[in-house]
Design goal:
Strand content: under 5%
Number of helices: 8
Helix content: over 70%
Structural class: mainly alpha
Number of strands: 0
Distance between the termini: 45 Å
Radius of gyration: 19 Å
Length: 191
Amino acid sequence: MKLYFLLYFEFFKIGLFSLGGGYATLPFLYHMSEQYHWFSPVELTQMLAISSITPGPVGLNVATYAGFKTAGIIGSIIATSAIMMPSYFMVVMISKMLKKFRNNFFVESALYALRPATAAMIGAVSIRLFKDCAIRSMAFNSFSFAKITSFLDIKAIVLIICLFIFSFYYKKDPLIFLLIGAVAGIIMHIL
């Protein structure tokens, strides 16, 4: 029972403080994996990959998957409802107060100030995901160029760079690049 309360509290906290979409939940989830060891950072990266290709908001999908990994079906229900509650309450409260504070300088300033913080959180997660996906082992003491191939997954790095370049030049649906990356990753893993 204690696990369920802790799971609810942690995912409620994530829902309350992760502003900027589903990817903004990831720093909190990485912290949760390090603090409680309910899932590993690698498992979290895999949860993100699966959540990105399933329908629905990424943060909600990751919460559902992480809750299931932690405490089964009941855990997924608890995590999903907990991560949604803060947003639900905020939307209800804001909709009632929107007319009153719509052109308030302080409200506009606060929302404007949240933009860089959100971008920084998503940037930090991007670096963490790159590290988890492209670096095999961080167990090295001294850096030398001869050791680069021993800890870097060169194929994954090339795939990431190619997909980034293609997505920049060929402004197509991100799902296309996600599917290309998934298929290429599976093929590279098999080879």
